[in-house]
Design brief:
By secondary structure, this protein is of the alpha/beta class. The protein contains 17 helices and 25 strands. Helix 4 packs parallel to helix 17, helix 8 packs across helix 11 and helix 15 packs antiparallel against helix 16. Keywords: Oxidoreductase.
């Protein structure tokens, strides 16, 4: 049968058969020859016990030479019918390793692999107790030692952290910590979540009152419990807060609210973390094997040190502390910053009849929410995608299957289309003096987010106010000095001010490690987020994956978990599996740990 006569599915399976055969030989590295010379293999824990992208045959060969003997990958199969378009044949695949079952995705060009994604999905010996393995719940028969579900839960809550220690502690009880704790619960990993707020969801409730998710509902599901079909496309913050509070109860999480971590240190001799917390006013010392910082993708708020700030007679605060616009009717308000929070806060102040000026120091990427849904997110995360059979899992894996090195090339044409579709909108913003960009290379929103976690706004109305002059704008300047009732800008302009909001973002997540553990440990693990693209605020060298996120760090038994709802949901699986494997004593040799290039 000639190559032209076989189906796309047969073509993929033939490649997988040859791949599998080579992997079973004494020289598994030879399987690299089945890839394009500059092909990619992105592995999420399955082969490397790491989150790692191998770029090019030499890199793939080295990885296989170091990992194939221990991982023993086998049983590579096409999972669904393959497709073919523009010379690329692609398919979903399954495989297994010595310890785990996996899923993946492959793209072939001219008979060679262009991209391969492999992900660990389940540990063979330690599957989640679901479907046929789900617990019975009821205890049939008669016994004098019977305990109800409630009694068992109450006993666990009394003991864990006191007479019985957790294996893992997660510091940060927002959506990231909650989602990870839910996965660990299903894997029988004793875990406590530490949250300083009184209730789960308060980290959302406490933000400015107009805050809504800018990402659509299909992008934002939590693990195990997707939002119901009638959930709004863009959920208000308090609705999200209530969902998270409910989620912690339904998923039976050991969630310590009104608790603050005061210190943590790693005992090299006992291989334990010693974590001190204040729980409802009382000191508790926890001893655990794994510590996760789940403080979001951001660190401690950045508040600029501006001369004269201590003389200001009005009110000043960081955007994370902004209460909303209702208290500032008729006030002169200055918002330093021009990204998501700055726009939201400016719009809310305008709605409450404040006189508001946005200070834009550097250019911002703007994309209209409707356009984002239509051209960018829609193919994977939309009602149409769901109706076409794209499940949340399939959408997540599709996104994950594109190596970060080539992702900009796929996004640039889309954002050119965005610019053309909304050309009048962008023209009017420029006419108002707003400084616009589409990223250093024109690759738009997601690459900016992945590279630096800032520098963009998903427009839900504020940009129109800027274009119309309703939100006043000073661009290309910053605040040089703060006076008792005004600010002086770097161009010499003086603006009267009753309120200054610093919408100036956050530091790297390792800032929390410095505060909770030590500066030495923060420097040891280095900067979190970014991938070394050598673009603005993401210095090189190229690392190929997000720094320190969801994977082993240079500090033993310290992990970082965060990102948006989509990333928290998707990557929590791989982090949970890494933690479970260590708890059960499986061999977890980590391949390809990155050197630390940047401290913060």
């Amino acid at each position: 049968m000639t190559d032209a006569q076989i189906s796309p599915t047969q073509r993929i399976q033939q490649w997988l058969d040859g791949f599998n055969e080579t992997l079973q030989t004494n020289d598994p590295g030879q399987a690299a020859e089945l890839f394009e010379e500059n092909g990619f293999w992105r592995d999420l824990v399955a082969m490397t016990w790491n989150i790692k992208t191998m770029e090019g045959r030499d890199s793939i060969r080295d990885m296989l030479e170091h990992t194939a003997g221990q991982a023993r990958p086998s049983n590579w199969k096409v999972a669904d019918e393959a497709s073919e378009q523009d010379g690329v044949t692609e398919a979903w695949i399954t495989f297994e390793t010595r310890d785990a079952l996996g899923k993946g995705h492959i793209r072939l060009r001219n008979g060679s692999a262009w991209t391969l994604l492999t992900t660990m999905q389940e540990l063979k010996e330690f599957p989640e107790k679901r479907n046929f393995l789900r617990p019975k719940g009821a205890q049939h028969g008669a016994t004098k030692s019977r305990r109800t579900w409630l009694e068992a839960r109450q006993e666990e809550e009394r003991e864990l952290g006191y007479s019985r220690q957790p294996y893992c502690v997660i510091i940060g009880g927002g959506q990231g910590g909650i989602g990870l704790a839910a996965r660990l619960r299903q894997l029988d990993v004793p875990t406590i979540v530490i949250e300083r707020n009184p209730k789960a969801g308060d980290s959302w409730r406490n933000r400015y009152k107009s805050l809504c998710l800018h990402d659509p509902v299909w992008y934002d599901h939590m693990p195990y419990l997707p939002f119901p079909d009638h959930w709004p496309v863009f959920a208000p913050k308090d609705k999200i807060g209530d969902w998270l509070e409910m989620y912690t109860k339904i998923m039976e999480l050991n969630y310590w609210s009104s608790t603050e971590c005061t210190s943590a240190r790693y005992d090299e001799n006992s291989k334990e973390w010693v974590v001190d917390v204040i729980r409802e006013g009382k000191k508790v010392t926890l001893r655990l094997q794994q510590l996760v910082l789940a403080t979001g993708m951001s660190g401690i708020p950045n508040i600029p040190d501006i001369p004269g700030a201590d003389t200001f007679e009005g009110e000043q605060h960081h955007s994370s502390k902004h209460p909303g616009g209702s208290a500032y009717k008729g006030k002169k308000c200055v918002v330093l910053g021009a990204n998501n929070s700055a726009h939201d806060i400016c719009a809310a102040l305008w709605e409450n009849d404040a006189d508001v000026t946005m200070i834009q120091r550097s250019s911002t990427h703007i994309i209209k929410s409707d356009t984002l849904m239509d051209l960018v997110l829609g193919p994977l995360y939309s009602e149409e995608a769901v109706q076409n059979g794209t499940t949340t899992e399939k959408a997540d894996l599709t996104f994950a299957s594109v190596p970060f090195r080539i992702m900009p090339d796929m996004h640039i044409p889309v954002y050119k289309q965005v610019a053309e579709q909304d050309a009048d909108f962008y023209h009017r913003l420029k006419q108002a003096g707003f400084m616009l960009d589409f990223g250093d290379d024109g690759s738009g929103l997601f690459m900016k987010y992945l590279r630096r976690g800032s520098g963009y706004y998903i427009d839900v109305g504020a940009s129109e106010l800027v274009a119309q002059g309703e939100i006043k704008l000073k661009s290309g300047v910053s605040i040089e000095r703060i006076n008792p009732r005004s600010v002086t800008l770097t161009d010499g302009t003086e603006l009267p001010a009753d309120l200054i909001v610093y919408a100036t973002g956050f530091g790297s997540m390792n800032g929390w490690a410095a505060r909770i553990i030590s500066q030495e440990v923060a420097d040891k693990v280095g900067k979190c987020w970014g991938m070394g693209s050598d673009t603005t605020k993401d210095p090189g060298p190229w690392e190929g994956e997000l720094r320190n996120m969801w994977k082993p760090t240079q500090q033993e038994a310290l992990w970082f978990h965060g990102g948006n709802l989509h990333q928290s949901r998707h990557y929590s699986l791989y982090l949970a599996l890494q933690l479970k494997a260590r708890k059960e004593g499986l061999e977890t040799p980590v391949y390809g740990m990155e050197a630390v290039h940047h401290l913060s």
